[in-house]
Design a protein that fits this description.
The protein is of the alpha/beta class and 195 residues long. It is 33% helix and 15% strand. Bound molecules: flavin mononucleotide. Flavin mononucleotide binds next to α1.
């Protein structure tokens, strides 16, 4: 995993970005890759790249030794202060591969972890995916940062050839999401930040 660092890091805040799409030209991956470029001072941002390698979740395998990719996911989650998700909607719900990742976090991984999600669908779409994501995050007792959950519509033509977004308004709104996450981490009660 590559951590994208900004300057002035004494105790950097770590933020893991997780995309729900496996598609090479994914607009959700573009949003998260763009967020990587906006790492505020004092933060380390990283894009999770292991989604395709995760085995189908099977409770029989949720024991030591875990499958290596599942162990790696949980280690990354344990080492991060917060998680930012962005996912498309498939068939009115979450993409199966992304739900599979979330299933691997039921036993361990997102409990009390500060999380937020960005909905990039135009016209208030993908509500089924985000309602389901919210339900799962509630089930695993994640700490949903309401002020950092955003609807940032991204049209296909907003994506540059290198898979990044240059639209000034989208960049501004991504900066606001990152700021809200960091503010939430910084204002957590002492001892809550254990990584
Ligand atoms: C199998 C499949 C099912 C889809 N189902 C829905 C859906 O139920 N609702 C919706 O708004 N879009 C649906 N879409 C469209 C995707 O959510 C949309 O194209 C999204 O922007 C793709 O994200 P990506 O560019 O990050 O891969 C579906 C796409 C696929 C491939």
């Amino acid at each position: 995993v590559l951590w994208f660092a900004a300057a002035n890091m004494s105790q950097p805040i770590k933020l893991l970005l997780i995309c729900g799409s496996l598609r090479a030209g994914s607009s959700h991956a573009a949003v998260l890759n763009t967020a990587l470029q906006l790492a505020p001072a004092g933060t380390l941002l990283s894009l999770y790249t292991g989604l395709a390698e995760l085995p189908h979740f099977n409770p029989d395998d949720d024991r030591q030794p875990l499958p290596p990719s599942a162990a790696s996911l949980r280690a990354l989650l344990a080492a991060t202060d917060a998680v930012l998700f962005s996912t498309p909607e498939y068939a009115g719900s979450l993409p199966g591969s992304f739900k599979n990742l979330l299933d691997w976090t039921v036993g361990e991984g997102l409990y009390r972890k500060p999380v937020a999600f960005i909905n990039t669908a135009p016209n208030g779409g993908a509500q089924g995916a985000h309602d389901t994501l919210r339900k799962v995050l509630g089930y695993v007792s994640a700490d949903v940062i309401e002020g950092a959950c955003a609807h940032i519509p991204v049209r296909r033509d907003a994506l540059g050839p290198e898979g990044l977004i240059h639209d000034a308004e989208i960049l501004e709104r991504l900066r606001a999401v990152l700021s809200a996450i960091i503010e939430h981490i910084r204002t957590q009660p002492a001892g809550e930040r254990d990584v």
